[in-house]
Structure formats: structure tokens, C-alpha cells
Amino acid sequence: MPFLGQDWRSPGWSWIKTEDGWKRCDSCSQELDRENNQCTGSHDIILNSEDEEIFNNEACEYASKKRKKDHFRNSTNAQGFYREKWIYVHKESTKERHGYCTLGEAFNRLDFSSAIQDIRRFTYVVKLLQLIAKSQLTSLSGVAQKNYFNILDKIVQKVLHDHQNPRLIKDLLQDLSSTLCILIRGVGKSVLVGNINIWICRLETVLNWQQQLQNLQMTKVNSGLTLSDLPLHMLSNILHRFSDGWDIVTLGQVTPTLYVLSEDRQLWKKLCQYHFAEKQFCRHLILSEKGHIEWKLMYFTLQKYYPTKEQYGDTLHFCRHCSILFWKDYHLAWLFKDSGHPCTAADPDSCFMPVSPQHFIDLFKF
Question: Nearest to residue 89, comparing CAs of 351, 354, 325, 341?
Fold first, then answer.
């Protein structure tokens, strides 16, 4: 057991080994003070080449340590602390674990920066950021807020570069700007982590992103096949693969042929049947003058009253056996029989359940 003196903040003593044993010297701080007094008291002492070399080496070593420390501190802007893609979700203190897991901690630990580069997980992360922007923004810690806006910055730059999914990001930024305006106006009624000027700068950044997306122009491809060159049955098949009505409307604005295909009643009927139940149809039935059901108007009307089905290529998973939230890497699981986290169950696959963005938020509500 180490012994602590009366003043545990003391720098301690320095010892030297002699023929008679170990002898205690003056403290390092006293030696430094004595040397400083000698240097200031007499101007005759000049550093020789060896002392100057030692002094320069110590200065370089100190500067190197400082650079490493600053680099480690600045790395909080990116999610570089944790290489694992999972986190243990515990809501109460136990003998093994003290405290509980928060939404901000989960947001820091899970690898969202890499997830946005995966086309299967991109929509999932955007939806999660949108839900946090609507109701859970103030529950994030300071570091989690930095990670939130840094990930959002990467998403915006990715959309501006590859021109994919701009509508999703526009909806996200619209909800985020509305929330920031409410928080800034009611700063006395809400608890904001950080200075109010930081939040004002964040709002200005979001407005700047919105302007950049508003001015985004799609590049035209003049070489190779286009949608107009495909047969009608293939174009119709593509439209039937869409699960969002706004995507169908947007694609129908490209060419007159696609517009005719996007107005097909059977297309909108199947879309309504996919997202909504028959009881919901009866409550909001819309008929045309000829007595036919207006399925397109039905879809957008029902969308205002009922949530649509969420469809993602890949989601976070939760293990009911280990209470671990993790990204499941399917190609590694197929190659190396890896579940994505250190599960102790005999049959790990039977314990996994996909976690929707709303379920992710609910996991950290106490």
C-alpha cells in the first residue's frame, strides 16, 4: 500500500543511491527554485553546450507531449475513442456496474460516423438524428452535442457531393432549425448545455446548410443509358419498388412517360395497402366524381394521421440476453460467425431484435 503524507499534493522527495544506502535529497521544486535564484542572482552562469542540449531536449519533449495531449483533446470532435460498435444498456446501478447508460453516452459510443458511409444504414441514422432533433436534443451532453453536429456536417457534405437523398436531409434540417429557434427564444425556460452564443452559431450553421441544399443542382449525365431508354414494364417495376410516395412524385416529374406511370391507380393502391390498414381506409375514404377511390389522395391524407411503415436496409440490434445495443455486420457474421458483440448465449441469433429509431430513443427514457 502506498503511504500518503499530510499533504498528498506534495511532489515528493528525490533519492540517490550511495555506498551507505539510499539518501534523501531536496524536493524537485526546491531544487528548481534554488537554481532559478542562482540564475537571477548572478549573471556569470552561462549554459554550456551540454546543458543547452539537455534544455532543448526537455523543451522538445514537453512540446511533443503537449501536441499529443492537444490532439487527444481535439479528437473529441470525431468518434475516435471507441472502436467497438456496441454498448451495454443498463438502466440502474448494480454490484458490477455503477450508474446508468444515457442517450448521449450511447450516441458517443456507437459508430455513427462510419454508419453514414454505408448506404444500408444512411437512412436509419438520418431518421435517428431527426427524432433527436425533435425532442431529445437538450438531453445530450456537451460531447454528444459536438458529435451530433459533426456527424450532421458529414451527412450534409456527403449529400452535396453525391447528390443522394437531399429531401431526407432537408426535412431533418427543417425540424432541427425549428427546435433551435424554440430553444433559443425560451432560453430561460429550457436547460441548454453550453453558452447561448454556441447555440446561435449552430442555428446559423443549420440555416447555411439549408441554403446550400436549396441551391443544389443535379448534374446531368449525357453518356450512357437513361431511364427514358428502358422499357415501360421495367419503369413500372421500378416505381412499384418505392415505399415513399414523395419519391414516386419526384420521379414522375422527370419525363412525361414517368408522369403517366406515376399516376397509376394500382401503384398508389398497393402503396396504401402496404402502409395502412383497411380500418384506416374506411375512416378517410376519398371518392372521385365517377365513384372511384382516389388512392393517391388517400395516401397523402392517411400519412397526416397515421405513421407509415419504416423500411431500412440495416438497423441497430438489441440483444435481450446481454442487454447490448450493437451494429450487426452481416458480411463479417457470414464469414467469421461473428454476431457483432461478445454474446454469451448458446444461440445468439435467437436473442437479437432489430431496433427502430423510435425504439432507440425509448431505450434511454427512465
Answer: 325
